[in-house]
Amino acid sequence: MAAYATVAELARVAVDGWDELAQFSTRNPQVTGDMLEQVYNDEPLDDLSLNTDAADGLAELTDTLENVSRYADTYLNQRYRELVPLALEHYQNTGLGYAVAVIALGRMYGIRQSEEMRKTIKAQEDYLRDLASGKASLDYTQPSTPEPSGRMTVVAKPSAFDWGGY
Which of 69, 74, 95, 116 could form a disulfide linkage to 4, CB 3.0–4.6 angstroms apart? Predict the structure, then answer.
């Protein structure tokens, strides 16, 4: 399954960007945010062990984004059942990628979330609820089937007004 957000989008919502992601995703303190970004952009590092550690960290970040995307699907399935998992053209101009990235970052922080982060995560989960309820929408239009031409028949009760009483 493809995630609704990329690791680069996750880095954009992180306060310290790639450095913060490197701190959370790799076990090797020598892997910096710049190294993680370099490996993300398919530019190998000179040190093979650091390259492997950075690639493992990116895999962990991608797994987190995919898990949060599946979580988002639980909301989206209520309204967009025939489309889930969504193709890029259905959500690329919406806030879904941002919502997934923020929720993923919150999961990385765990219980160490600040009050501001909790509010931001709640706002993004509210956005997912709004998508499910129809208050917000994705970039998707329901295909319409034209009605066949024909006649319309209307049946109505007779008028209750007594015209003979005038």
Answer: 69
Residue pLDDT, tens place only, 2-44: 788 999 999 999 988 999 999 989 888 898 999 989 999 988 8
| Placement of tokens 């066949």 in the chain | 148
Give the Cα separation of 111 and 27 in Å (integer).
19
Between CA 19 and CA 17 the distance in angstroms is 6
Q: Give per-residue pLDDT as tens, 54-100.
A: 999 999 999 999 999 999 988 888 777 777 777 777 777 788 889 99
3-state helix, strand, coil in the chain (%, to 5): 55, 0, 45
Residue located via tokens 């959370």: 24
DSSP three-state, residue 156: coil
